[in-house]
Specification:
elongated; binds ligand BES; single chain; binds zinc ion; Aminopeptidase; EC 3.4.11.5; alpha/beta; 23 strands; 2 domains; Leucine Aminopeptidase, subunit E, domain 1; 9-stranded mixed beta sheet
Length: about 525
């Protein structure tokens, strides 16, 4: 016999014993008689795809408990709604329980999903993040201000899905999306939930800074925002170095970019002393902080140029990772360095062919003023060598070529250290914000050191070929440390719809991977080198 249509079943139930089931995705207002925001909360529950032929819903333990609470009505309604829910698909039920006027059930995919060796990530965690994000957004569409979330067996991933999935840059709009506060459903795993909230809020801070317009996040505003976030920590010191300091430090490459703009440059320096021994060698993070990259005299095409407000994504992700590390009270020392400036065309700007001198004395021919990130980083990397670092890790939206190579699937990692690579890689499997190792061959070095007027050119001599690799080879000229990694994050800078738990916009990637990496390093104690 054919099942009657879901809506008709729902209507019949409503007239009979009240609970209203709606088998369709949540859209529009809640049915009459069901208050929104008046005390009741939303509830997001996960359900695994069925392994057995009977098609019965395979609830999580929270789902099972809730189903018992409502005398099996949830299971009954779900089976009336049709075939088992596929991964990421939802059904919403109104009026099942007085404390939860709206319940979203969302498909989690396979029950025992774990690390997927082909995909280089933990599929189970990714499924939870994606499912919870979808569920929470449906609650937001219903304008319910509070949602309880099923931990789905991994409360950290669930919290990440909720907090990342609900984030949106609303700052400058008069009409804002309703604020929804996610909470853990049940009392178990509250520590893991809290950890997930902190990781996700860290990434959201980077997203906020990257998304904000360049006239709001100037170098000084960026530095002040980060300083304010770190103000309450007694074990953090923030130095906002002005132009005079940068000049004294002889950072000629950085200054050559900054002088094209009327907005003064800043060198932001953060010291987080989380280790029991404040003298322990620190992890040093360096981030490209170009708050707007017009290309300079080698002007970029106007179409899409607005995205270059996020060209401080390296600085945003490393600073946000330090804010997160401090919040988690990670037991290690971290130094953060962010050269911040604009890249603009003007009468004072770098001209193609100009030669500038970096902090280590090397001369650089600026063959293309749009390859400005490596000029800032050259000086910041030289400076990073002052701290006897355990490792130096820099992040930069450095090359369009990186986006061409990997797209948004993974951050490209160029490193001289397999020890460092292993830590970054293992961290990324957990976070789902993946990394992929790229080459630092002498082959590319030759293409930047074969330069007519200076020690090194800021572009490879075969112009676009291997652009991400020649940029990395250029940076290597300013590194003597034996544990250094350069993360080219240009490809992962923004999200269209590739990462299901991030809305469209600047992505703040790979903040969580940097945090997880730092957490692992803090456990790898002192014999790490
Ligand atoms: N900030 C850009 C790279 C970029 C492009 C980041 C797209 C994110 C998305 C960088 O400063 C740049 O313009 N690089 C040039 C280098 C070239 C001139 C050698 C590029 O990639 O085209
Ligand atoms: Zn550029
Ligand atoms: Zn740039």
């Amino acid at each position: 016999m054919l099942l009657p249509c879901v809506r008709r079943v729902a209507a019949r139930r409503l007239s009979r014993d009240l609970p209203l089931a709606c088998g369709c995705p949540a859209q529009g207002p809640a049915p009459r008689g069901y208050s929104r925001g008046a005390g009741g909360k939303g509830l997001v529950l996960g359900v695994y795809s069925s392994e057995k032929d009977d098609g019965a819903a395979q609830f999580t333990s929270a789902g099972d408990a809730f189903d018992r609470l409502v005398s099996g009505k949830l299971r009954e309604l779900l089976s009336l709604c049709g075939p088992p829910l596929k991964k990421g698909k939802t059904r919403i039920f109104h009026g099942l329980h007085q404390d939860f006027p709206s319940v979203v059930v969302v498909g989690l995919g396979k029950k025992n999903a774990g690390v997927n060796d082909q995909e280089n990530w933990n599929e189970g965690k990714e499924n939870i993040r994606a499912a919870v994000a979808v569920g929470c957004r449906q609650i937001q569409d219903l304008e319910i201000p509070c949602v309880e979330v099923d931990p789905c067996g991994d409360a950290q991933s669930a919290a990440e899905g909720a907090v990342l999935g609900l984030h949106e840059y609303n700052e400058l709009k008069q009409k804002k999306k309703p604020i929804v506060t996610p909470q853990l459903h049940g009392s178990a795993e509250s520590e893991a939930w809290q950890k997930g909230v902190i990781y996700a809020e860290g990434q959201n801070l980077a997203r906020y800074l990257m998304e904000a317009p360049a006239n709001y996040i100037t170098p000084i505003k960026f530095a002040e925002h980060i300083e304010q976030k770190l103000r309450s920590f007694s074990n953090v010191k923030v130095h906002i170095r002005p132009e005079s300091w940068i000049t004294t430090e002889q950072m000629g490459a950085f200054l050559s970019v900054a002088k094209g703009s009327t907005e003064p440059p800043i060198f932001l320096e953060i010291h987080y002393l989380g280790a029991a021994n404040t003298d322990d060698s620190p992890l040093v993070f360096v981030g490209k902080g170009v708050t707007f990259d017009s290309g300079g005299i080698s002007l970029k095409p106007s179409s899409g140029m607005d995205a270059m407000r996020a060209d401080m994504g390296g600085a945003a992700t490393i600073c946000s990772a330090i804010v997160t590390a401090a919040t988690l009270n990670l037991p290690l020392n971290i130094i953060g360095l962010a050269p911040l400036c604009e890249n603009m065309p003007s009468g004072k700007a770098n001209k193609p062919g100009d030669v500038v001198r970096a902090k280590n004395g090397k001369t650089i021919q600026v063959d293309n003023t749009d390859a400005e990130g490596r000029l800032l980083l050259a000086d910041a990397l030289c400076y990073a060598h002052n701290f006897n670092a355990r490792a130096i890790v820099n992040a930069a939206t450095l090359t369009g070529a990186m986006d061409v190579a990997l797209g948004s699937a993974a951050t490209g990692v160029f490193t001289n250290s397999s020890w460092l690579w292993t830590h970054l890689y293992e961290a990324s499997i957990l976070t789902g914000d993946r990394v992929w190792r790229m080459p630092l061959f002498e082959h590319y070095t030759k293409q930047v050191t074969d330069c007519p007027l200076a020690d090194v050119s800021n572009v490879g001599k075969y112009s676009r070929a291997g652009g991400a690799c020649t940029a990395a080879a250029f940076l290597k000229e300013f590194v003597t440390a034996s544990h250094w990694a350069h993360l080219d994050i240009a490809g992962v800078m923004s999200n269209k719809d590739e990462v299901p738990y991030l809305r469209k916009g600047m992505a703040g990637r790979p903040t969580r991977t940097l945090v997880e990496f730092a957490a692992r390093l803090s456990q790898d104690s002192h014999n790490a080198k």
